[in-house]
Amino acid sequence: MANLWQPSLVRVTDANGVPVSGAKLYFYATGTTTPASFYLDEAGLTPGTNPLVSDSAGIFVPAFVDGGTTYRIKCTNSDGSSTFYDVDPVIISGSGGGGTYTDEQARDAIGAALREGAGVAITVSDGSDTITIGVDETDPSAIKLTESFVVVCSDQSTALTAGSGKITFRMPYAFTMTAIRASLKTAQTSGSIFTVDVNEGGTSLLSTKLTIDNTEKTSTTAATPVVISDSSIADDAEITVDIDQVGDGTAIGLVVTLIGHRT
After folding, report:
1. Both 116 and 203 in a single domain?
2. What does the alpha-carbon distance between residue 146 and residue 262 come to, in Å, rounded to a whole number?
3. C-alpha to C-alpha distance for 120 and 136, rounded to whole angstroms
4. Distance from the first to the final alpha carbon of the chain
């Protein structure tokens, strides 16, 4: 019986939280670039094609690996120009869903991707670079996959102005927001700091609003970081985006990204 490689269930996203279409997952013999066997079923009867390629939403089909085998496992974008993780060695022990990962990169890659919840146990040994993960595969909600809603709030050519309800949409499911950011196609040069608010049912989700400093294109570099005051967004909630303040009127192309996981 083969073991589920749990990170194959995790959506591959770029640094902005955008799903990566055609991401590639390579299974190698440890210390090499020699392809190693993996499977598309727990029984180990259906071999996978190396590399495994994600769909347009950055999702792989589940991948299963041989117990007792040591692997190198690498995940890249479609053309190989970006590597999301390269874990070596990966020691698979036992059978059926558990594994021991003995490289510090595994802690970074897996720990960042999985969120602890019912049915998930993550244990890190203080004395070594060892992380052990066990997942209840009968409970899909146990794995909290990071998702993002990339909301285009304007066209890409018209100067932005202050005002409420620049865009309105409804959430497709209950969502826990762990981060939020805003970006501009064209930064404003001067004047009052560009300020954005995001509301659920007319009530702000932010105690400190999104700001984009003058000459900057992203809120991630803002002198005053955003603070989320309400991270729990209800299913079918009406979300609106307001531009509370603009500067010299040269800012163009607002995008807001909500990052988190299904509740």
Report:
1. no
2. 8
3. 7
4. 32
